[in-house]
Amino acid sequence: MIYKLIGITGYLIYLIYFTKFLEYIWPQEIQNKKLFFIVVMVVTQNVIQVVVCAYYQIFYSVNHPFFEQFKLVQKPWPWEKNKEEWKKMKIKTLKSIIINQSLAALLVSIIPAFECRMDKQSFPSYYEIMKHVIICHLSEDLIFYWSHRILHLPQLYPKIHKIHHQYNVSIAIATEYAHPIEFISSNIIPIFSGPYLLGDQIHCITILIYVGLHLSKAIHQHCGYVFPWELYNYLPFATNSIHHGLHHSENNGNYGSQFILFDKLFGTCIEYKVK
């Protein structure tokens, strides 16, 4: 029970205080909306990625038995298996993240501008934020499910998706380690499908909160731990680090990103046991 309360508290702190922070710093007038959107999106994504990855890095570095008991699969971490290979892999991963982040910023700059609201006068309520976040998650999950499943086809997997699966024991920074084609088809397009669908009904603040939640959950799913204080372990139909982490170790099934709904619906949900 205490772990569940910790998870709920952490979620509420993020939702309330991040919203209040954005409201406090939000400009009264935005002249170049497209440029503003690109800048706040890049900043938000990178800050969330650094903070959440640093959070999990603490557990990797401490390597305490209390935390290691929650390890998903009992295999060596990449740095324990081969230190020299890990150094090379770490550099490859950081290069991939930089390239993909740059590609994402470029893509957003050339596609039609988002029709989302940006004015300070129409700041969304918490109810509106949660409603639109759920819609965005559902849209993202449906598109991600099929793009992810297609990338596992024998014709595509060796050329594209196999790069991401080089981490058969997944860790936090492996989240965005991917081929650029995969990054576009399985990250950028699914993530922004919901905001495009909602148009001017959604506020830019909501998109930032949604992207932060999505990215932190994606990192959680790749972290290699099953901590009992993670809220996603208690949400019905939500994926968690077991669902996706064992997809990495088994390389089969469990293609969903946010929910197990589409895996259940299309018969690809594999009930793994923690090893």
From TrEMBL:
Q: What is this protein called?
A: Fatty acid hydroxylase domain-containing protein
- Ranges annotated as spanning the membrane: 6-26, 35-58, 97-114
Has the keyword Membrane been applied to this entry?
yes
> Which InterPro entries does the record associate with it?
Fatty_acid_hydroxylase (IPR006694), Sterol_Desaturase_Related (IPR050307)
Would the keyword Membrane turn up in this protein's UniProt record?
Answer: yes
PANTHER family from the entry?
STEROL DESATURASE
Q: Which UniProt keywords apply?
A: Membrane, Transmembrane, Transmembrane helix
> Which molecular-function annotations from GO does this UniProt entry contain?
iron ion binding; oxidoreductase activity
Q: Name one GO biological process term.
A: lipid biosynthetic process
- The record places domain Fatty acid hydroxylase at 134-268
One GO cellular component term of this record is: membrane
Q: Where in the cell is it found?
A: Membrane
Name of a matching Pfam family: FA_hydroxylase
